[in-house]
UniProtKB/TrEMBL annotation:
PROSITE patterns (UniProt xref): GST_CTER, GST_NTER
Designated name of the protein: Glutathione S-transferase
Xref: PANTHER family: GLUTATHIONE S-TRANSFERASE GSTA, GLUTATHIONE S-TRANSFERASE-RELATED
Superkingdom: Eukaryota
Domain GST C-terminal residue range list: 92-218
Coiled coil: none
GST N-terminal domain location: 1-85
InterPro entries for the chain: Glutathione-S-Trfase_C-like, Glutathione-S-Trfase_C_sf, Glutathione_S-Trfase, Glutathione_S-Trfase_N, Thioredoxin-like_sf
Amino acid sequence: MVLKLISATPSPYARKVRIALAEKSIPFELVTEVPWDRTTQTPQYNPLEKLPVLIDTEAQTDEDRSVYESHFILDWVEHKFPPPEYVSLTPDTKGDELFAKKVQVITDGICDACVLMFFEKQRSSPSEEWASRQRRKVDGGLKKLAEWVGDQDFLVGGRFTTADIAAGSVLGYLRVRFAEHPWQDLYPSLKRYSDQLEARTSFKDTVPVPQTISDKIV
Ligand SMILES: N[C@@H](CCC(=O)N[C@@H](CS(=O)(=O)O)C(=O)NCC(=O)O)C(=O)O
């Protein structure tokens, strides 16, 4: 199977997929773009016009060719590349597996609120109410994440799983996109947890980088 990933340098959602593929030693071609620029390829592969999109270049049908929505891409990768040939990123018990999906609900929700805040700030007259509503979601999500992490090294089952990929990706995104957010002072153990994840090769190789958006968006 020859895989191509459409990604963007700051994307916390795409970073999840890049980390998962790296941790499972699955080779892929990385295509980096800006999904808001008119040159984006995403509409060819995702009706929602969002990245990341994982493309199975050898698929027999268009339907099978594109995999989109980061949490689903992670499930798809785990399904298509199972143990023992590939490292498992899925927790061992059904209960832990369900919890790992719940973690992604919170982490993706924090990312979604960050993206909405980012674009609200681009508007000629940003709504303070709207921005503070999104900020509450970020703060509430981080509080929950800190509660779940506690003083553990991994979120579930005592080993590295998709839950840690999702949590590490959103914390790494905050470091770059919302450096002024005081989460590292508020939650020292969450900072310890994030620092430890950022030391993994798969994280070192995928640190988010801001992008330049050429076209008008909002
Ligand atoms: N829920 C989606 C969110 C993906 C998403 O919002 N991607 C952004 C890029 S980034 O925010 O991740 O950098 C995008 O393609 N936005 C284009 C658009 O929304 O039209 C996922 O988990 O994959």
